[in-house]
Amino acid sequence: MPNANALEKITDYDRLVEIFGVSKISKELLKELPSTHKLLEIGYIFAHRDFDKLIAQWKKGEKFAILTGRGPSNALHLGHLLIFEFVKWLQDTFKVPVFIPLSDDEKYVFRKVNTLKDSLYYAYDNALDIAALGFDERDTNFFISSKLLDVYQLAITLSRHVTLNEVKAVFGFSDSDNPGKYFYSCIQAAHILYPTWKKGFRSLVPIAIDQDPYIRLSRDIAERIKLPKPAAIHSKYLPGLTGEPMSASKPETAIFIDDDPYQIKSKIWRALTGGQPTIKEQREKGGNPDKCIVFKWLETFVLTPHEALEWKEKCRSGQILCGECKRKLFEGLARKLYEHHKSKLKVISKAEKYFIHEVDWGMIEKIEEKEKALIERYEESAKDLNLSL
Amino acid sequence: MPNANALEKITDYDRLVEIFGVSKISKELLKELPSTHKLLEIGYIFAHRDFDKLIAQWKKGEKFAILTGRGPSNALHLGHLLIFEFVKWLQDTFKVPVFIPLSDDEKYVFRKVNTLKDSLYYAYDNALDIAALGFDERDTNFFISSKLLDVYQLAITLSRHVTLNEVKAVFGFSDSDNPGKYFYSCIQAAHILYPTWKKGFRSLVPIAIDQDPYIRLSRDIAERIKLPKPAAIHSKYLPGLTGEPMSASKPETAIFIDDDPYQIKSKIWRALTGGQPTIKEQREKGGNPDKCIVFKWLETFVLTPHEALEWKEKCRSGQILCGECKRKLFEGLARKLYEHHKSKLKVISKAEKYFIHEVDWGMIEKIEEKEKALIERYEESAKDLNLSL
Question: What stretch or stretches form a coiled coil here (chains A, B) (predicted)?
């Protein structure tokens, strides 16, 4: 069984479903849900473990909890927002609590930050971005992993039910790795099982498909300590603007929440399209929306499924040019992010309502300053970029 | 280099000094101390790392902190009290803070208790026994390892400066061991470096000689993160009553603080002596105090060094019989422990003054009940056992 690290960049999703032994989300399962969501319809959320059983139990009145983490070493990008918007839909639809661990410890042991403290700014910043999506403040529980004693106590408790061999197999570590990385496997299992251990709710974990081995480890541990096994729903990866996976280390691949309209425009204009080399050829032969990242992003972030079909046709028949699509994507994303920053300002003043532990107001004030400056930047640049916000 | 586990039962102390590369405590070093202590005089505390440098710095006005832990899965025995009495002498002599981590997490990952919680009762009970020795409540800091966030945060911070290879070499773990055991190496280093990291005081760690590899690991880590390396002073093991090492799993080897006078008497009467098979032979040939555990214990717990020499001579010349030594030891220890329980009752009501974190008063009340019952038991049995308390 290949470990998660080795599989990180596989995007042959059918193969991953087979390797991991997860189930595809069937049409029958979709019909069981009280409503639907675009990411389910377009197959972006496409596989699961025990989601069907969880829904059946929920219909019988059994509550569950959503558990979805974030490793805070950078600003969120649009791929993250997409998943958290889906999580918010889950919360609204099923009326269940959401737990969101911010794993500063993970970022530190994997050397993504220099000190634990360096991760804190992003922990609060990321949390507030997520809260701004409209999560229910009475039922949403953020916590920074190294700031909640329960996490360490549960991780230690779980650690006795795993062997180093298992951790090596799942994470692909060697004896040159540090013991913090190894122990993080138990911390992660503690995050996943926290709602179950603390509140008695079975966990549902929305997670990218390549992370499934961690879910499997947590399910094995849950079974050994006789807790209900966490369920999972798996997402694909949204391709980055350049065609590569989105990555914080390659800023041109993604649009980050803190990018200003100039950066957004510049990145979109350099994005990979399915267009022809010349306008003439495009008009004659049409473009290829199936190979076009700009179209993929339009479909994902801006258009309704119906609009997307129309747009696709216009591209294929040469009625529209790449510049028009880019402009549409730019305007859609700039407006979306401008609205987002305004929503974020509103949740900042009640940040403490979203956290299980005390919050660092000094840091949150810094974030507030940054947000205000960003909003100004949007408003100043609108005229320059001919953008109606 | 053999690991600590493999060496646990070596009592050839000169060999350990050589293997570990520690220094013996020299007469010159003893002269540098402001006063002396019986355990230093009889060579029970016999080796060190950088204790000489620490004393030299202290004389120049640089404070240090004493760090000495306890793994709480059982009542303390007299061997533990002995070391903590010495630690109290260190505190009185050098006027320095003492930090005492109670490692419930260690006891759990090494399967000495079934749940983390099972360790808590002994954590408080052991702490109060130690506090009862007269530690300065303003400068003594107990903490239960899994109850202090600082511990996890520091352990994670340190974990990045160690490899699994090093942990394996020091602790002798295999890949079938659980990741909690591995991470405990970082927790232990966090305990040792806590006073330095948190308060800026270099640590002095009184520790049994076979535990030196853990000190070495902490010193290596300290060096890598540019903290002053912890110093250590090493003790020998007091032989158990049966001649074997004292152990909680073999109650006959040790006298536990909660033993009542009947148990104490029974254990001492079955202890190993250096006596002759018959009274006649003993009177004629004399006994061998160098091979006698009862004498060793009398020397350690009851007699002054001067009295011990006299007593030794009387044994060798056949003037006293084993029964007299046993009686003397029994009376000395019973009185010592009776006084101890009365002192403990006095510190129980101010337990919170000794802890860095909040204490569990429900548990402390249980301990108080137990202590009161024990004191009654002493008083009731005194007449029966012809014991003047």
Answer: none
